[in-house]
Amino acid sequence: MILRIHSENPNKREVSQIVDILRGGGVVIYPTDTLYAFACDINNADAVRRIARIKGIDPETALFSIVCGSISQISTFTTINNATYKMLKGCLPGPFTFIFKGSKELPGILKRRKQVGVRIPDNSIAQAIIEELGHPILSSSIPINEDDEEYCTNPELIEENYRDLVDCVIDGGTGGTEPSTIIDCTGDEPVERRKGKGILIG
Asked: pLDDT for 164-177, tens place per residue?
């Protein structure tokens, strides 16, 4: 199933339809400010495992991202000092993934993680879904097809490729091919681990 949602002003009824799928243990593909990505309810371990199966990765070690609606949500699952908080305020929402040491509040399948990636994408659809759901989603980007980039940027082709594997593909317009910039905040100083779309200023 493909569901077209306005990229700037998401319709509440359509957003609620997506949230119902997530609450029911479903998996969707949704737009971010970088790549299209798989998403599920962060509290549903079976749905997390389902994404891992689709991608052929180990759910216990895979680098999923917790996609949040605010820095306060991020702080629930991580430990943020004052300097890091200022950096997050300057970068988010935006095309960054920040890696932190995980807290005891990590849900279910993530509880034993020593590190966790967190995001707040600058995308109205993603933010509307999280607001309606009431808590973060778990996310992992769809693989980039270097031979035919349309299969990871064109929602109709994405749906054609994944229709038997996910419950819904959200058409929020043409996606990108440049991933988020990864910043490792687990040490004394932030370290850029992957150069992507996001550019740190200062």
From this structure: 999 999 999 999 99
